[in-house]
Amino acid sequence: MNDETPAATGKPVFFIDSNMERAELHPFAGGRVALFCVKSPDRESANQDSAALIPCPDDSGVLVVADGVGGYAGGAQASRLAVEAMAEAVEEGIAAGNKLRASALNGVELANKRVRELGTGAATTIAVVLLQEGRMRSCHVGDSDILVVGGLGKMKHRTLSHGPVGYALEAGLMDEGEAMNHAQRNEVSNIVGIPDMRIEIGPRLGLAQRDTVLLGSDGLYDNLFEEEIVERIRKGKLEDCAGALASTALRRMAKPHRGEPHKPDDLAFILYRPERRKGA
């Protein structure tokens, strides 16, 4: 485990251009997180996926995953700027006494401003989860998606990917198998770094003791079907859940197998689970 844990320092921890061998575990926001971030197996360039853990007072916090696009160096820079802007806005919001939701939205807007100022055409997705008082709320831009899964496998929340395939899937115009192999699967119509960026805000959800929250880049969702993800994260030790996701995604990225998805890409994901209360 990284000694620079958010619980120990009270400061954000960033994962920039990471190439982990295994997931890192951290106490966070009244629970635990497992975070994994690795470069695509088919290239040596910078990891365009970034992540951050941003601790806040009173066992609250913010989880962030960003997936950069626009050339290898540009994408990596855009995702780094996004997670750093989120941390900056949240810390400033806490100091000013602002609500966490408002601070996070300011963070996405600041990220958009910083990425646009690059002037290179680079952009990034961003997926954000706010954790506070045993509840969570998502906000996102792009196709880095967020799930909340119960211990019995019930999907309690899933964000909508901002692209033609995501919208078609939501409307029932195609099934998941068709979506996984569609030519436009990785087209994104709403992203950080454009003038008309739109932030989608999810409902505020109470978290049960066995619920698991997942934020991930498309390196995860392009290599596992939703049912496979749910089965791997709904129960068991958090580190084992993270290991199962990572190993399956990396195996499929490395070599195509008949009937299984295959798309080499950078990969970043965060799992969060609230701590079980004593006596429960």
TrEMBL record:
GO terms for molecular function: protein serine/threonine phosphatase activity. Pfam families: PP2C_2 (PF13672). Residues 32-274 form the PPM-type phosphatase domain. This is Protein phosphatase 2C domain-containing protein. It comes from Candidatus Polarisedimenticola svalbardensis.
